[in-house]
User: Which sequence fits this backbone?
């Protein structure tokens, strides 16, 4: 792994996104790296804020409106585009979502952890709430803090490094275009291809779930309404 390409897909949620950007750009990273924000049809006002932030913090901003007319979410396009860029540079692909805040040392330590494990397909940082308790989507790891877990469960892309070993073995062009999200599929493919996925519960990152799509908060507040919207409108396909 000659470097890492860090990416953050963004759909509005500008306040949490700015926290993500500030945390990533102030990280202590020794390995060569780039940082790209993929703006997935945010409002014109928020797009302007991202353009201004790109000048201030020095990240690359890709407006998906320049690449496609397909409505948000465009996670598939982002993953396919980012995979090609990473593979050209023999780099890992490190996804930090826009509702996640990393610590200064998180990203470098995640890279170190993956590099120490040649069989690593995905290295994921555990998510916690603002009080430091493990939260969605890793509640199954409660009680397993400060460990490095070889897991068969899927790794969320909240804060996950996809290694060159995985990127070279699995072409994201083969992902199912009828779906919206791909962390489950890619996690399973990693294992099917003979690699291992590791959850680093010693590298917690703050996660504020679903900041970019508030309707998904209904999953916790009003599950019946959430599943009605999900299935009648064909949203949130995993």
Assistant:
């Amino acid at each position: 792994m000659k470097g890492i390409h860090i990416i953050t897909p963004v759909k509005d949620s500008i306040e949490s996104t700015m926290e993500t950007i500030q945390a990533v750009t102030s990280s202590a990273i020794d390995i060569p790296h780039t940082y790209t924000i993929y703006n997935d049809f945010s409002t014109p006002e928020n797009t302007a804020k991202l353009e201004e932030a790109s000048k201030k913090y020095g990240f690359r901003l890709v407006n998906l409106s320049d690449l496609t007319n397909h409505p948000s979410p465009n996670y598939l396009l982002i993953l396919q585009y980012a995979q090609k860029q990473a593979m050209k540079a023999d780099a890992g692909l490190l996804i930090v979502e826009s509702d996640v805040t990393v610590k200064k040392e998180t990203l470098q330590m995640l890279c170190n952890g993956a590099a120490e494990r040649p069989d690593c397909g995905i290295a994921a940082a555990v998510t916690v709430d603002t009080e430091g308790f493990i939260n969605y989507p890793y509640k199954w790891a409660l009680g397993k803090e400060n460990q490095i877990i070889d897991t068969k469960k899927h790794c969320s892309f909240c804060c996950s490094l996809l290694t060159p070993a995985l990127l070279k073995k699995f072409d994201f062009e083969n992902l199912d275009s009828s779906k919206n999200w791909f962390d489950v599929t890619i996690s399973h493919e990693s294992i099917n291809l003979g690699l291992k996925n590791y959850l680093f519960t010693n590298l917690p990152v703050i996660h504020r779930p679903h900041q970019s799509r508030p309707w998904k908060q209904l999953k916790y507040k009003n599950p019946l309404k959430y599943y009605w919207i999900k299935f009648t409108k064909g949203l949130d396909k995993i």
